[in-house]
């Protein structure tokens, strides 16, 4: 076990499992194309529009993604846990296992069933420990339906509970 500021890696992972995260699939053109499940996606800036996600630099997707000028970011809906699992599985051809995709602009694979997708231009890679933080500028986007998001929490995929009237009033 490797220590991380006094915490070993397993303890660190256990603590962070308590944070819920939306589930995305990031895709990049290549021969073959690559794609992976990410729970580290976030918006960074509105002016200019920027998003980020993280990827282990030891991942089989990293060499292709490191060279990619454009990527697709797909926000998954609550019914898409199989898509998330497929793109999180190592050692398989993820695009052969998931047939619902097409080539988009710049050759970026776009998943047909995502709740929403963004086509992004990669602007920067920032090395952060064993990962890279990828910054990207959204160029195009589309939402296809309004399903609740797929969430990753405590090591499993889940979805949001329907909002209650109390929660809705508090948020307003």
UniProtKB/TrEMBL annotation:
Organism domain of life: Bacteria
Keyword terms: Oxidoreductase
Keyword 4Fe-4S: no
EC numbers for this chain: 1.-.-.-
Keyword Protein transport belongs to the record: no
MF-aspect GO terms: oxidoreductase activity
The Flavin reductase like domain, residue ranges: 16-159
Database matches in SMART domains: Flavin_Reduct
Name of the protein described by the UniProt record: Flavin reductase family protein
Organism: Phytohabitans maris
Classification lineage: Bacteria, Bacillati, Actinomycetota, Actinomycetes, Micromonosporales
């Amino acid at each position: 076990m490797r220590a991380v500021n006094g915490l070993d890696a397993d303890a660190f992972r256990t603590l962070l499992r308590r944070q819920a995260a939306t589930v995305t699939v990031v895709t990049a053109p290549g021969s073959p194309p690559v794609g992976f499940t990410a729970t580290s996606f976030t918006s960074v800036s509105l002016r200019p529009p920027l998003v980020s996600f993280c990827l282990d630099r030891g991942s089989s997707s990293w060499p292709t993604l490191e060279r990619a000028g454009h990527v697709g970011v797909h926000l998954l809906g609550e019914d898409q846990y199989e898509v998330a699992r497929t793109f999180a599985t190592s050692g398989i051809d993820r695009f052969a296992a998931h047939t619902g995709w097409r080539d988009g602009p710049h050759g970026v694979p776009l998943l047909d069933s995502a709740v929403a997708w963004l086509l992004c231009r990669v602007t920067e890679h920032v090395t952060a420990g064993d990962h890279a933080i990828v910054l990207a500028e959204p160029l195009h986007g589309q939402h296809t339906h309004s399903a609740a998001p797929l969430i990753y929490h405590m090591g499993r995929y889940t979805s949001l509970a329907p909002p209650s009237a109390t929660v809705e009033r508090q948020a307003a």
